Each structure stands twice: as structure tokens, then as C-alpha cells.
Amino acid sequence: MRTFWDERYDRPEYVYGTEPNSFLVENVRHIPKGRVLCLAEGEGRNAVFLAQKGYDVTAIDASKVGLSKARDLAESENVKINTIQTDLVDWPIDEWQWQGIVSIFCHLPMEARHAVFQRCAAGLAPNGIFLMEAFSEKQLQYNTGGPPNRDLLIDLTSAKKELAGLSLLHAHDVVRDIREGIYHTGKAAVVQILAKKER
Predict the structure, then answer these.
(1) Most CB contacts within 10 A, which of 19, 24, 131, 153?
(2) Nearest Cα to Cα of residue 8 among 143, 112, 145
(3) Count of CB atoms situated within 10 Å of the CB of 117
């Protein structure tokens, strides 16, 4: 059965572009070399960027169409990524396995997000990094992308609580300009997190 995301991605162009998220680009140096898990990775722009940097990347998404485009993008850039089509809410993240977990505009209902973030914290290896950018509740003031549902948005206080087992290196609620394809364009309110799992 085709999903909302299958329908969104089913067009020739990459709807969120092929360039990586700028917050990821600015902070990739903090992620130790090794295995990186990309949550709700869609068409693969961030996974391919990480593979180009030498990481062993696994991209997870519910959309068959999105992941097919992700593999095509990787092939066009002469890199390899692993892809897993599944519902993130139900997918077990193995503990102590990942040098990095990247969550770029992965929007889940609050209860599901809390459970996934707990699994992310447990899934990081020592010194592993969790990197997240997501639309905040303030994004409802703008019309530049993201879900129009407050339950699918995040606030900085909640993010900090849900990642309480990690050391926060960067945790900010900001308004910034985003240019990512046709659906993320313009001034946007986001929460940015960079967190480390201590030994």
C-alpha cells in the first residue's frame, strides 16, 4: 500500500533537494568515524553526504519510493549506503552499536518520539553523537515546511528531557533560513540538538 511519503517522493526531482542539511554539514566533524544511522531519511541526501565523508551509513525510512531514490542518489555519487524500509516506531535500535544517529526533520507523535529517542540514546556507542534538527512548535507561525500538527512538532525543553541520558553539546531553539527543495524553503523555527554519549 502506498503511503503519503511514497506519493510525495514519486516525482523525478528530489523534493527536499540533494544537498545535505546545513546543520549536519556544520557539525559532522563531531561524529566519530564508523556506523551512522539516519532516521526517516527519505530520498537520501544526508545519508549520501555522510557516506561521502567515509561513514558506514544505514538509512531507515517507511517509504519504498524514497529509499529507491536514496539508492539512486548514492549510485550517482559513487558511494554505498544501506537502506531499511520499515516503520521507525516499531524498529528496534540495537544498543551500543552506532557512532552517530542523525535525525533531520523526523517528526513523530510525542509518545512515539519519546520511545524512539530513548532507543537512540541506548543505541549509541561510547562517545557516539546524536544530531537532530526538527521544526519546533513555533513553526506553526510560518508556512515554510513541516507538519501543521503541534503533536508532531517539538520544543527544546521536551527534547532535553527525552535525551536526558546524553551530554548536550549544543541545544538551541532558533529561527533560521532553510533552503531544502520545494517543501523546506524560507524562514523556519527549529530545534537543534548535538548530544554525546559519555563512556
Answers:
(1) 131
(2) 145
(3) 26
What is d(CA 173, CA 175) in angstroms, rounded to the nearest whole number? 7
* Closest-CA residue to 153 (of 141, 138, 140, 137): 137
Number of C-alpha atoms within 13 angstroms, CB side, residue 196?
A: 12
* CA atoms 177, 20, 121, 4: torsion sign: positive
Kindly report the CATH number assigned to the domain that includes residue 50. Answer: 3.40.50.150
Residue type, 47: A
Terminal CA-to-CA distance of the chain, rounded, Å? Answer: 43
Q: Give the residue numbers spanning the domain of 12.
A: 4-196
Between CA 139 and CA 156 the distance in angstroms is 13
Pairing of strands 184-196, 124-135: antiparallel
Name the average pLDDT for the chain. 96
Could you tell me if 39 and 59 are in contact, meaning their C-beta atoms sit under 8 angstroms apart?
A: no
Query: What number is the average pLDDT over the span 81-93?
Result: 96
The dihedral region occupied by 190, where left means phi > 0, alpha psi between -120 and 50, and beta the remainder, is beta
Number of domains in the chain: 1
**40 close to 103: Cβ distance less than 8 angstroms:** yes
* pLDDT beyond 80 at 1: no
The pLDDT value given to residue 11: 96
CB 132 within 8 A of CB 103: yes
